[in-house]
Protein: Crinkler family protein
Organism: Rhizophagus irregularis
Amino acid sequence: MSYSLNCLVLGQPTAKIFNIFYSKLFSVSVGIQVKFDELTVAGFKQVLSEKCKITEMNVWKVKLSFSEIENISKEDDIKNCDDCKKIDNNPMLYFKTYYNADDKKPEPGYLHIFIVPTSIDIPNKRIKLEDIGIGLIHDKTTEYLQELLSPFNEPVYCDNIDSYFKAPLQRKLAAPHYLCKEYSVYFDQEGFEFLPDVMLAVGNAMELYTGKDN
């Protein structure tokens, strides 16, 4: 007889729940199976890692109904739930400590495994913020965002959001060279360094604001 573990990555919608099946054998890779009783925590996490494309994670054994999942937004929420237990970080521990085919069968209709990423994997080269003067850049970025989010004379509310997108800017703002060149009507000061993710967000916002992404 086979059993199914319902799994979900924290932060993803319930529609992303996926299943991992096991019986007396457990598939750890394409064409490779091990006896379930010999499956280690490390082996199970490796399967999750390949399935979810996550390299660093905390894995929780849970028993959550569909409606309960909707109330989970952070790892602390999982910790505070009944019948939830963090799977030990000991990679050599047998996974049957948590689920098996005898007295620890996964109950149908519940989420069984919650995966909490503990690091953000960035493709290609990871930027070390300390190498680019993170303190100074953080201060500049904070000031910039405060200015960027209030460039109009009128406050923005939900009922006047349409006028927000139609309103002219009251002043030009600072931006890197490529934004000044492409959006000269809106930006006029070059040479500022900001956090890369902020600049990417500003560029995307300008595409929406000017209708390029519609």
